[in-house]
């Protein structure tokens, strides 16, 4: 068999040191490979050069970088489309293979004609160094070798069962992705599911098995799985992703036998029970309908568990040898991060701030992320967020599961104004119930936190759960903006648009928040805001002693954004349209400013609106306005910015600082805004952007932007330099103000 027939596909994200060792283990093979395809899943800027350096290890190493984070499945699928070899090896960037891996498995293919996949045994080696730390000698890999000497066995599949009952065995005994060598022609159109963040590799192997592919076991241990502090299998928040995988498997149509269905339902029962979900009962009842298969399942299940117990002694010995106590680096201070918004680098303003602060904190602390959502749909964070955290827990309300919450929501739905007047707490407090508080306390029982970091004021009650008599750490609050001020402005905006009831409700909310701010803020050791202006307001109004600024930041695009050459001239608005100031602002522009601009402009232009959550009434109104394009939600806003000539921020209420303004600056797009639209950002009219609050002046500024190319370039360049210097994501990671000082 020819030696240059193997393609190795390695997805990577922010782990250049691990990646280098993985590539070196491939280069050390006794038979060479045709190509090593590395797919960089949009790693952070500080890691990119080091990842690029890995390609210098060989001329047949190729690097492809995604412009945005897409996940390991998308990276592997991209690699599959690029691969030229007859055989494919999927290797994770933190894993290794033995020098004889390829030669041994290729020999196995020669001896077993008709084989589609060869699965060797795998070993686990321990590495508790964190990938974002300065590189240290690997305690598990001896100098001059590319594979670990100190390992303990994984839980291998029974080779007879794998070859005879392939589908069931893969479900029962997970196969390490780097332990398989597969013929490319056998894969055909099968791809990794990109909507899964756990179990995606198992789903892929099951898809091949369901198509009749033949699996064979090579009983040599030639694959090594690195166990470290950021493996997804170590995180409790991983459970939700596993449940998504099992439900996808259940609805895939691949489960043909009753026994296979029993395995999936049993796994769902186990995972849902652990998370105390009511759906567990349904899957338990299904297992009872197959009493003839239960003994067989239990026998194999406990056989698997007994193997793990037999390996425990070897695991403890490996841990003791590999990591002497005085050299273990897995001892960072524990930080509990409580947020109502799922951290997301491309979400709304709150999600983007939650993401940037989390990213900075994760470089210094072992972060436990708690997302307390106010949405019934439980949307778990992406894999890039999970990589930053020791543990991720998402708590969604759950329809019908909390009687107190259901009652409150129903009362608010029937009589919102009466409910607001009778309640002593703001709307956001409605979701804080005894049951939810108990759930949170139970999730982190027994963990002593050094720091509790709370994002947004209405998450403060959850912090009290961990501030008992044994707590001696620091409790800090990131307000983002001042809730009472934001509600006051919303009240005024509703009044301006003739919505008296909503205005009164927001005024009542503002009063409630003022009382809460007065009593709660002084109880925190540190309080963060997003601008110096808000710091002055808090210091004057509540005499807060330790108020510090964490500026909102954005990621600078890797490629320089040049002025769009498309026609006609395009104004862009980006924002969540379920947030009233955003939807009101764009409607104000389209109904009152746009007609003035059309009368003054001598050339065609269009207005592109990007964002979800708009009401049907507003959508109908916008559809009837010439030159207005409502796009809705997009996964990646980069193309929208690149195709636009200017960005509009016609916001007339709100608080904090507009992250979307910073995003426009980062893309070098000149901005026309109201005063509130860029409040808290150190910008100047005519230097960084054009500012106007009156309709006539706003239209005049838009006309100037359209007709003066030199003005557009000057504003865009000045704004970009401001963002690069003061609001760059990389600057926040080096800002000591966010970390505790010794």
Kindly summarize this structure in a few lines:
The protein is an alpha/beta fold and 742 residues long. 43% of the residues lie in helices and 16% in strands.
Biggest beta-sheet profile: 9 strands, mixed
CATH superfamily heading of the largest domain = Spore Coat Polysaccharide Biosynthesis Protein SpsA, Chain A
Structural class: alpha/beta
- What is the terminal separation in angstroms? 62 Å
Report the β-strand fraction as a percent range.
15-25%
What is the count of distinct domains?
Answer: 3
Question: Key terms for this structure?
Answer:
742 residues, alpha/beta, Spore Coat Polysaccharide Biosynthesis Protein SpsA, Chain A, Rossmann fold, 9-stranded mixed beta sheet, 7-stranded parallel beta sheet, globular
Description:
The longest helix is centred in the middle third of the chain and has 29 residues, at 294-322. Strand 20 (646-649), helix 25 (659-666) and strand 21 (671-673) form a beta-alpha-beta unit. Strands 1, 2, 3, 4, 5, 6, 7, 8 and 9 form a nine-stranded mixed beta sheet that branches. This protein has a seven-stranded parallel beta sheet with strand order 12-11-10-13-14-15-16, sandwiched between helices. The protein contains 28 helices and 22 strands. It starts with 5 loop residues before the first strand and ends in a 9-residue tail after the last helix. Helix 6 packs antiparallel against helix 8 (200-210), helix 6 (166-172) packs parallel to helix 10 and helix 19 (483-496) packs antiparallel against helix 20. It has three domains: 6-231, Spore Coat Polysaccharide Biosynthesis Protein SpsA, Chain A (Alpha-Beta Complex), CATH 3.90.550; 334-549, 3-Deoxy-D-manno-octulosonic-acid transferase, N-terminal domain (Rossmann fold, 3-Layer(aba) Sandwich), CATH 3.40.50.11720; 569-726, Glycogen Phosphorylase B (Rossmann fold, 3-Layer(aba) Sandwich). It is of the alpha/beta class and 742 residues long. It is globular and about 80 Å long.
């Amino acid at each position: 068999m020819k030696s240059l027939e193997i393609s190795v596909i390695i997805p990577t994200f922010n782990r250049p040191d691990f990646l280098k060792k993985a590539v070196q283990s491939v280069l050390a093979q006794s038979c060479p490979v045709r190509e090593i395809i590395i797919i960089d899943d949009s790693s952070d800027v500080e890691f990119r050069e080091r990842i690029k350096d890995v390609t210098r290890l060989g001329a047949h190493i190729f690097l492809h970088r995604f412009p945005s984070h897409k996940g390991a499945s998308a990276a592997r699928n991209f690699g599959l489309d690029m691969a030229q070899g007859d055989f494919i090896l999927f290797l994770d960037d933190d894993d290794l293979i033995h020098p004889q891996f390829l030669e041994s498995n290729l020999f196995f293919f020669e001896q077993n004609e008709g084989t589609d996949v060869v699965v060797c045994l795998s070993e686990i080696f321990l590495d508790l160094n964190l990938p974002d730390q300065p590189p240290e000698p690997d305690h598990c890999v001896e100098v001059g070798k590319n594979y670990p000497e100190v390992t303990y066995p994984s839980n291998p599949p029974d080779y007879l069962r794998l070859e005879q009952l392939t589908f069931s065995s893969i479900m029962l005994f997970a196969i390490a992705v780097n332990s398989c060598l597969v013929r490319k022609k056998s894969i055909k159109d099968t791809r990794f599911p990109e909507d899964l963040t756990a179990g995606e590799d198992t789903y892929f192997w099951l898809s091949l098995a369901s198509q009749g592919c033949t699996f064979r076991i090579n009983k040599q241990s030639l694959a090594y799985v690195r166990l470290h502090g950021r493996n997804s299998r170590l995180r409790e928040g991983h459970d939700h992703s596993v449940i998504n995988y099992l439900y996808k498997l259940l609805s895939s149509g691949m489960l043909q036998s009753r026994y296979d269905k029993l395995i999936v339902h049993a796994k769902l029962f186990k995972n849902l029970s652990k998370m105390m979900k009511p759906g567990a009962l349904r899957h338990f009842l299904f297992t009872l309908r197959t009493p003839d298969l239960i003994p067989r399942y239990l026998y194999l299940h406990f056989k698997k568990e007994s193997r793990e117990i037999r390996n425990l002694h070897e695991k403890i010995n490996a841990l003791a040898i590999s990591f002497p106590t005085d050299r273990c680096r897995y001892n960072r201070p524990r930080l509990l991060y409580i947020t109502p918004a799922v951290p997301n680098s491309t979400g709304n303003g709150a999600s983007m701030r939650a993401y940037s602060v989390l990213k900075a904190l994760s470089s210094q602390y072992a972060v436990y992320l708690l997302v307390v959502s106010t949405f019934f749909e439980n949307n778990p964070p992406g894999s890039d967020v999970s990589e930053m955290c020791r543990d991720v827990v998402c708590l969604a309300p759950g329809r019908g599961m909390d009687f107190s919450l259901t009652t409150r929501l129903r009362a608010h739905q029937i009589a919102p104004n009466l409910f607001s007047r009778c309640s002593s707490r703001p709307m956001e407090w409605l979701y804080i119930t005894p049951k939810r508080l108990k759930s949170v306390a139970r999730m982190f029982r027994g963990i002593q936190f050094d720091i509790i970091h709370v994002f947004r004021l209405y998450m403060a009650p959850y912090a009290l759960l961990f501030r008992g008599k044994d707590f001696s750490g620091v409790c800090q609050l990131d307000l983002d903006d001042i809730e009472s001020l934001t509600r006051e402005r919303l009240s005024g905006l509703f009044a301006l648009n003739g919505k008296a009831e909503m205005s009164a409700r927001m005024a009542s909310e503002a009063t409630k928040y003022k009382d809460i701010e007065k009593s709660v803020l002084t109880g925190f050791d540190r309080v963060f805001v997003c601008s110096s202006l808000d710091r002055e307001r808090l210091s004057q109004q509540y005499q807060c002693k330790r108020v510090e600024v964490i500026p909102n930041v954005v990621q600078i695009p890797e490629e320089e954004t040049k002025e769009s050459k498309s026609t006609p001239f395009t104004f862009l608005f980006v924002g969540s349209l379920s947030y009233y100031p955003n939807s009101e602002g764009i409607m104000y522009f389209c109904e009152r400013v746009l007609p003035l601009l059309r009368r003054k402009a001598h050339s065609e232009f269009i207005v592109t609106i990007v964002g979800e959550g708009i009401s049907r009434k507003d959508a109908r109104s916008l559809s009837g306005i010439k030159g207005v394009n409502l796009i809705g939600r997009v996964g990646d806003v980069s193309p929208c910015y690149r195709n636009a000539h200017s960005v509009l921020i016609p916001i007339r209420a709100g608080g904090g600082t507009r992250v979307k303004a910073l995003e426009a600056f980062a893309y070098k797009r000149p901005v026309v805004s109201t005063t509130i639209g860029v409040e808290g950002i150190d910008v100047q009219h005519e230097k960084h952007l054009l500012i106007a609050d009156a309709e006539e002046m706003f239209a005049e500024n838009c006309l100037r932007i359209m007709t003066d190319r030199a003005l557009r370039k000057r504003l865009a360049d000045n704004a970009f330099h401001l963002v690069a210097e003061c609001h760059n994501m990389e600057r926040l990671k080096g800002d000591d103000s966010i970390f505790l000082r010794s």
